[in-house]
Amino acid sequence: MIRSQKELSEAKHPTQGLSQTDKLVLRYSQARDWTQGNQKTLGIIAVVVLLAVAGLFYYGSVSKTNNERALTLVARIEPAYVAGDYRHAIDGDPTHRIQGEPVVGLRQIVSDYGSTDAGSVAELYLGNAYYYLGKYDSAQTMFEKASFSVPVAQASLDAGKAAIYEHKGNNEEAAKLFQSAVHRDEHNPLNADYTLSAARDLQQAGKKDEAVKLYKDLLEKYPGTQFDDAAKRALMEMNIPT
Asked: How far apart are alpha carbons 122 and 61 in whole angstroms?
C-alpha cells in the first residue's frame, strides 16, 4: 500500500523500509515543496528538471526491464549533472565504476533507452546539459525528441523549447510555448514563473496588450509574491496603472 505524503514526510528515517513506489512519492513531494520555496533564486531551465523529473518518477511506470535499467543508469550519472559537471554528465565517466560497471553518460543512455520513460528523462537532462554548455541546437533536438505523458514533465519540455527560442530572439514563439506550459497542469507550482516569462516575451515582441493581460493575471493570482512584484514593475515601465 502507498503511504500518504504526510506519513512519509513525518517518518523519522523516511527512506528506510519504503517500497520503490513510496520512495518516488516522497521524492516528488520533497521536490515540489523545495521548488516552491526556491523559485526566486533559480532559472526556468534549472528548476524544471527537479520538479518534472521527480514528477515523472512519481507518476510513471518503472515496471519494464529496459526502463528499470535506464532509471538505474540515469541515477548513477545524475550527481554529475546536479553538480554542474555537464561534460561528464553528457559523456559519462569510465574511470568511475558502480557495482563493477563504468558510469555511462546521458548521450549513451538516450541512444540505448530513448524509447523508455526513463530514457525521456535522460533526454530532458541531456537537453539541459547542452543548453548550459551553449549548444543550443543540440539542446533543441533533445527537447523536440523527448515526450512525456505526465503533464508537469511535458510542461518542462515546453519551457525548455521556449528558452531556446528566447536565445534565438524569437520571443513571440517563446511566449506561446510558455503559455502552453501553463495550460498543461493547472496545479503545477511553476505556472507563475511560466506566466511571467510569457508576459516578458510578449512585451519584448511588441505584443503590449497581451503582455499587460498576463501581468494583471499575475497580480490577481499571486499577490504578495515575487511574481506580483515583477508584474508591477513591468506595468510601471509601460505606464500602465496597477
From this structure: 15
The secondary structure of the chain, three-state, reads CCCCHHHHHHCCCCCCCCCHHHHHHHHHHHHHHHHHHHHHHCCHHHHHHHHHHHHHHHHCCCCCHHHHHHHHHHHHHHHHHHCCCHHHHHHEEEEEEECCEEEECHHHHHHHHCCCHHHHHHHHHHHHHHHHCCCHHHHHHHHHHCCCCCHHHHHHHHHHHHHHHHHCCCHHHHHHHHHHHHHHCCCCCCHHHHHHHHHHHHHHCCCHHHHHHHHHHHHHHCCCCHHHHHHHHHHHHCCCCC
- Distance, in Å, from the CA atom of 167 to the CA atom of 201, rounded to the nearest integer, reads 11
Bridge partner residues of 103 (DSSP):
93
Q: Hey, which of 16-25, 117-126, 150-159, 228-237 has the most confident mean pLDDT? A: 228-237
Percent of the chain exceeding pLDDT 70 equals 74
Q: Per residue in 150-167, pLDDT tens? A: 888 888 889 989 999 999
Take residue 167 and report the three cell numbers written for it.
536565445
Q: And the C-alpha cell for 55?
A: 514528477
**Could you report the per-residue pLDDT of 196-223, keeping only the tens digit for each?**
999 999 999 999 999 999 999 999 999 9
